[in-house]
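Reviewers of the previous submission asked for a worked example of the structure-prediction workflow described in the proposal, so we include one complete record here. The input consisted solely of the amino acid sequence. No template or homolog information was supplied to the procedure at any stage.
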Amino acid sequence: MHNKVVYHAMKAFAAFGLPVLRFNFRGVGLSQGIHDHGHGERDDVRAALNWLDAEFHRPILFAGFSFGAQVGLRACCGNARVAGLIALGLPVHAAGRNYTYGFLPQCSAPKLFLSGDHDKFGPHELLSAVIQRAPEPKRLVWIAGADHFFQGTAESPAAKLILMQSEMRAWLRETFALSETPKS
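From that input alone, the workflow returned the following structure tokens.
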């Protein structure tokens, strides 16, 4: 919840005046419970959706990073309350685990996939094949010179978080006709 990718994603939503909820999965930080390998974590996402729905009564835009993107896509695809999905650094193979996305062909909501072109957990060929199975509307954007955390590489050392955020904001404007709120 406190890493730079999640923070910059929150700032992208906040630029439009949208309410934002960031949370830790069970067993992370001061959260109760223990890590459940994505099963119980889907319940964590559903609980967050329920709270957002009860609190704001608005369509929900979901964004998740890495494991959170994988769990969130599983929990949100097909949920009528979720108007759009953003997956940041979606993993395909990480820490000896292969992530599968067999549910993705049934995910009809608009989807944005952002990944660094040097993301070792989502190599081009593997991630492109996963996303190819997702129905339209969808967009895959590779951030040049970025790793999994949207940091730079040796060839392009500057952090790419602003580029990630810029792509999110452009997609939100284009897909949902949102206007950014003026800064006071």
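The chain is about 35% helix and 15% strand. We consider this example representative of the routine output the project will generate in years two and three.
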